[in-house]
């Protein structure tokens, strides 16, 4: 990290640049999830005590505090529960504007966050009208998959 002080303005600012490269240990559960994505499979874990289904998968149920006990493959479609629009992009992300959605895949108890495309963001277009509560969305797979979350390139409205 490098910093540069700017004291010439009335309200001082400080430019900050972080350039971080690091490896994340995925662990057994997330490794299996990522391998599933590489194979165009959305894998979830389940809890037999409370019948919750987790995607992204969890090794333990957050309600029962019991280990999850089984893998299942979920459909590639779900319901867009909520979204927000990013009007400014960032390095490594899609070109803005785009929507970030919380998607409940069919059969899942939890929400999966991902990009939602196929939305008209031109001035005058009403994004809320295009993505009303309960909009059905489906996963669009990346052509080249490497076992990471962007193996699902994004979600798009169905129909
Ligand atoms: Zn449970």
From TrEMBL:
Residues 71-141 form the ChsH2 C-terminal OB-fold domain. Residues 35-66 form the ChsH2 rubredoxin-like zinc ribbon domain. This is Zn-ribbon domain-containing OB-fold protein. Signal peptide: none annotated. Coiled coil: none annotated. InterPro entries: ChsH2_C, ChsH2_Znr, NA-bd_OB-fold, Thioester_dehydratase-like. It comes from the Bacteria. It holds the Pfam family OB_ChsH2_C. Gene3D superfamilies: 6.10.30.10. The lineage of its organism: Bacteria, Bacillati, Actinomycetota, Actinomycetes, Propionibacteriales.
């Amino acid at each position: 990290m490098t910093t540069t002080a700017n004291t010439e303005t009335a309200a001082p600012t400080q430019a900050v640049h972080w350039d971080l490269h690091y490896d994340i240990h995925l662990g057994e559960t997330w490794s299996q999830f990522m391998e599933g994505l590489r194979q165009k499979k959305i894998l979830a874990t389940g809890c037999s005590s409370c019948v919750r289904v987790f995607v992204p998968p969890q090794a333990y149920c957050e309600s029962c505090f019991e280990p999850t006990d089984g893998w299942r493959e979920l459909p590639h479609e779900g319901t867009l529960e909520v979204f927000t629009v990013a009007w400014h992009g960032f390095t490594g992300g899609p070109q803005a504007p785009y929507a970030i959605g919380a998607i409940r895949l069919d059969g899942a108890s939890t929400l999966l966050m991902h990009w939602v495309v196929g939305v008209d963001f031109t001035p005058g277009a009403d994004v809320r009208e295009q993505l009303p509560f309960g909009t059905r969305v489906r996963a669009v797979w990346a052509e080249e998959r490497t076992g990471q979350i962007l193996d699902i390139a994004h979600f798009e409205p169905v129909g």
